[in-house]
Amino acid sequence: MRKLTVFNHVSLDGYFTDAGGDMSWAHQGADDPEFQQFSASNASGEGELLFGRVTYQMMAGFWTTPAAAQMMPKVAEGMNRMRKNVFSRTLDSVSWDNTRLIKGDLVAEARKLKEQPGPDMVILGSGSVVAQLAAAGLIDQFQVIVNPVVLGKGRTMFEGVPERLQLRLTSSRTFGNGKVFVTYEAT
């Protein structure tokens, strides 16, 4: 069975978007060379990406632009090359290369994807997708970058999870820009 991982940035107070849905705060400190290398190596993998509609539209609107290719060429190349799945009941089509639209039941469709042969999968952003799949026990690993910023309010990626999720810390790494990368596995 394929492994399903979440990779998200969060603020120190636990939000992955601010109250207005903005995530630009997560890009602060991106000029740290060690962090740049880490980001580029993450995007160079052969995994498969999963998105909800909102994150898909945001990502497709940025990573396909010349500005993305100029700012972060390795990350942009990886994002555009990787296979992508977008879960949406409202979209009728997708335009980003290597993207498939999935309109069925989120949990059932994610379970089918996990059972198919192929590379491991990663969810980026997509808080409602994360919460639903975490509650269904389908997420194997949570990779979180804790950013040195307090937002005061916003949205957590676990909003709506009905009960406690027990996780086990498997690794952590601190960067010079103050960001901390932690990896937890579901127990």
Q: What keywords describe this structure?
A:
187 residues; alpha/beta; two-stranded antiparallel ribbon; 30% helix
Q: Short summary of the structure?
A:
With 187 residues, the protein is of the alpha/beta class. The chain contains six helices and ten strands.
What does this structure look like?
The chain has helices at 33-43, 53-63, 66-71, 73-81, 106-115, 127-135, and strands at 4-11, 17-18, 48-52, 83-87, 99-102, 121-124, 141-147, 154-155, 167-174, 180-186. It contains six helices and ten strands; from the N terminus they run ββαβαααββαβαββββ. Helix content is 30%, strand content 28%. Helix 1 runs parallel beside helix 4. The chain is globular and about 40 Å long. The chain has 187 residues and is α/β, with parallel strands linked by helices.
